[in-house]
Amino acid sequence: MKSLAGTGGLIRLILRRDRVVLPLWIVLLVAISVSYVQEYGDLFPTPESRVKYASNVGFITLYGELSGPSLGEFVTWRLGFVPVMVGLISLLTVIRHTRVEEESGRRELLGATVVGRHAQLAAALATTLGANLVLAVLLALGMHSQDLPLSGSIAIGIVYAGTGWFFAAVGAVAAQLTASAGTARGIAIGVLGGAYVLRAAGDTSAHTDGPLAWLSHLSPIAWAQRIRPYADNRWWLGIVILASTVALITIAFQLAVRRDVGAGLLPDRLGPADGTMGSPLALAWRLHRGLLAAWTVGFALLGLLFGGVAEGVGDMMRDDPSIQEMFQRMGGAAGLIDSFLAGVMTLVGLIASAYAVQATLRLRVEESSGRAEPVLATATSRWQWAASHLVFSLLGPAVALLAAGVAEGLAYGVAIGDVGGQLPRLIGAALAQLPAVWVLAAIAIAIFGFFPQASMASWAGPTVCILIGLVSAGVSTAGWIRDISPFTHLPSLPGGSAQAAPFLVLLAIALVIGLAGLVGLRRRDLPA
Fold first, then answer.
1. Measured between alpha carbons, how far is 359 from 272 in angstroms, rounded to an integer?
2. Which pLDDT tens digit goes with each residue over 220-249?
3. Which is nearest to 433 in space by CA: 410, 458, 462?
4. pLDDT above 70 covers what percent of the chain?
5. Counting Cβ atoms within 10 Å, is residue 447 exposed (0-12), middle (13-18) or buried (19+)?
6. Residues 144, 150, 152, 156, Cα dihedral to 10°
7. Largest Cα span, the chain
8. Rounded to an integer, what distance in angstroms lies between the CA atom of residue 193 and that of residue 201?
9. Which of 228-242, 245-259, 368-382 has the lowest mean pLDDT?
10. How far is CA 185 from CA 173, 216, 352, 395, 432, in A?
11. Do residues 502 and 427 lie in contact, with contact meaning Cβ atoms separated by under 8 Å?
C-alpha cells in the first residue's frame, strides 16, 4: 500500500482547489434536471403528447428511444444529453488532476514528499467518483421530491453516476498514454464523442428498422440509458457499467507503472535533425494541426447527422404547437425546420467554443512546460508568439464550423433535393456562430494574460453557455440569465433576419477583451 501513501492528503488538496467548481456543477446539473419535471409536465400533460413528441427520428437521434409514456420516463429521456455532460466534466477533472499536474511539474514536487506513485491518480479518481455519487444522491432526492417514484429516482441517479464513473476511468487511461494534457483530453473526448455517435446511429437505425441497431450496444452511454429509470429499472446494467469502470481503472494503474513520471506510453515523435520551421506560426501549425484535423472531422460528422434528420423533424413539428414553441425558444424565427436547424447551429457553436478554448490554452501548456522560453529567447516577441497560437483558436473554429455547415447543407439538401439552395444558407448559419465563439476565446485569452495559474477557469465559459442552452431550450428562463450567453444575442439562422448590430457588438467585445489579455501577457512575468 506504499504506492497509495498520501492519497488522503491529495484528496483534501483537490477538494480545496475545486471548492467552488465542484459544488457548482453538481448543483447546476441537479437543478436543471429537477426543473424539467414540472416544466415538461406542464408542456406535455398527457401520455399521447409525450409519445408523439418523442417518436420523431430527429429526437431519437439526439436523445435515444423513449422507454414509456410516464412523466418520469419522459423527463429522463429528454435529459438524455445531460449524462454526456457529466461524463465530459468527469474526464476533464481526472485529467486536470493527473496529467496536467505532471505536465506543469507539480507532480514531481509532490512526489519528493511522502506520496506514493499511485496516490495522485487514486486521489483524482476518488474525488471524481465521489462527486458523481453525491450528484446521484442529490438527483434522486430531487426527483423524488417532485412526486416521482423512489426506485426510478434512484435509477436515474445511477444513470448519471454510471456515465460519470465510466468516463472518469476513460480520462484516467488517457492520462497515461500521452505526455500532453491537451492530447489526453482529445483522446478522452474522442472516446466520449464516439460513444455518443454509436448510440445515436444505433438508436436511429433501430427506429427505422435499419441494419446498424447493434452499434448502440457498443456504447456505454446507451448502456446507461437502457437502465430505463421509472420503467424497468434495470439495476444490473449499473453493475455492468461499474465492472467496466473498475476494469478501466485497473488498466490505468497498470499503465502508470509502465511509464516514467511526466512521460506517456505513446512516444513523442522526434522532429527532423535539421530544423525547417522559420517562424512561430510554422511551429504553431505543427502543434495545432492534429487537433484542428480531429475537430474538423468531428464537426463534419455532426453536420451529416443533424442534416440527415432535419426533414423528418419538420413533419412532426407542424402538428404540435408546444413543440413549435420550444424550438422557437431555441432560436428559430421563420419555418419550423429552420427552427430546428437554428437550434442545432447554436449547439454546434457551443461545441466550437470548447475547441476555441482548448486551442487558446495551448499557450499555457507551452509556457508551463518551458517550451515558450526558447522561442521567446529569439527575435520573437510575446505578441508574435501569442498571435501564432491565437490564429488557430480564432480561425480553427471557423474551419470546423465551415465543415459542419457544408456537411449539414449537403445532407439536408440531398434529402429535399435542393443542395444549391440549402448549402449556402447552412454555411452562413454555421459561420454566424463565430462572434460568440470568439468572445469565449477572448475571455480565455484574458484569463491567461492576467491570471495564468487560473487558466483552466476558461472552461467555465463554454460550460455556463451550454447549461444556459440546455435550460432555455426547453423551459422558460429569466431574460438576464439567457443574456449571459453571447449565443443568445446572435440572430437565429437559418430562417431569422440577420442584422449587423449583434455581430459587430460581439466582435467589439471579443476584440477589447482579447487585446486586454494580450496587454496583460506583455506586462507579466513569464513563466508565471
1. 25
2. 999 999 999 999 888 889 999 999 999 999
3. 462
4. 88
5. buried
6. 60
7. 71
8. 12
9. 368-382
10. 11, 23, 15, 21, 27
11. no
Whether the pLDDT of residue 335 is over 70: the answer is no
Q: Give the predicted TM-score (pTM) of the model.
A: 0.78
Domain definitions of the chain by residue range: 16-36+82-262, 282-528
What is the secondary structure of 469-503 as a DSSP string? HHHHHHS---HHHHTTSGGGGS--TTTS---HHHH
All three cell numbers of 460, joined, read 467555465
C-alpha cell at 139: 438527483
* AA letter at 231: A
Q: Which three cell numbers stand for residue 466?
A: 451550454
Q: Identify the burial level of 228 via C-beta atoms within 10 angstroms of its C-beta, where 0-12 means exposed, 13-18 middle and 19 or more buried.
A: buried
In 3D space, the residue among 443, 436, 414, 420 whose CA is nearest the CA of residue 488 turns out to be 436
Q: How distant, in Å, are the alpha carbons of 22, 407, 526 from that of 444? A: 20, 29, 17
397 — pLDDT class (breaks 50, 70, 90): very high
Among residues 246, 272, 268, the alpha carbon closest in space to that of 259 is found at 268
Give the sign of the dihedral formed by CA 119, CA 125, CA 131, CA 133. negative
- Which one, of 171, 148, 149, lies nearest residue 100 by Cα? 171
Q: Which residues, 6 or more positions from 78, have their beta carbon under 8 angstroms from its beta carbon?
A: 36, 40, 63, 474
The single residue listed with the C-alpha cell 450567453 is 485
Q: What are the tens digits of pLDDT across the range 442-496? A: 999 999 999 998 888 898 888 888 777 766 654 555 567 778 889 988 888 887 7
